[in-house]
Amino acid sequence: MRPGPSIRRFGRACSGASAVEFAIIVPILLGLFMAAVELPRAFSTAKRLDLASSTMADLISSTNPSLDEVYAAAQAVATPYDIRAAGIVLTAAGVYLEGGGAVARVCSSAAQKDQARTVGSVIGPAPTGTAAGARYVMAEVRMRYAALFRVFPTLSSWTFSYTTVWPVREGKTYWGNAEVVLPGGQPCPPV
């Protein structure tokens, strides 16, 4: 059976070939462009949040600044990214012996756009290298990533979370231990 004349003409036609090629290639190029912009931006946002977390832990471990100054410093190191929507929890903790092991307990905690830790609650095992009676601070930052292009639903559901544990470098001495007491909190109970 021989193909009809319209089928033969269709096989020789090439007037729409460039439009078809364009329709196939453009979505791929747009996807590559969006990925080339979005992925480095997400990586950079994550690194800035990590830096903000360590900056806040360092600040509250060595001095007694107001929390507004600490939050402002975090925003400054995270620039050009806006972290005002980030949930921040600052915690002063102590190490205690319980059940044959060292655990960390919350002594005081403050938060911005998140919930402060409950005083006296157990954080978990004590940081490596700490002994009973040791004091440290912890800064936690959580922020949902705001994608520029809403085409990738996976990027819009990313939540970055960073925790920095820092030893107390300067603080007021209570019961023989230098420690930091966050606003509205109390010193850690003695060991």
TrEMBL record:
What are the UniProt keywords, alphabetically? Membrane, Transmembrane, Transmembrane helix
InterPro entries reported in the protein's UniProt record? TadE-like_dom
Keyword Transmembrane in annotation: yes
**Superkingdom of the organism of origin:** Bacteria
Q: Where is the TadE-like domain?
A: 16-55
| Stretches that traverse the bilayer | 20-39
Q: Which Pfam families match?
A: TadE
What protein does this entry describe? TadE-like domain-containing protein
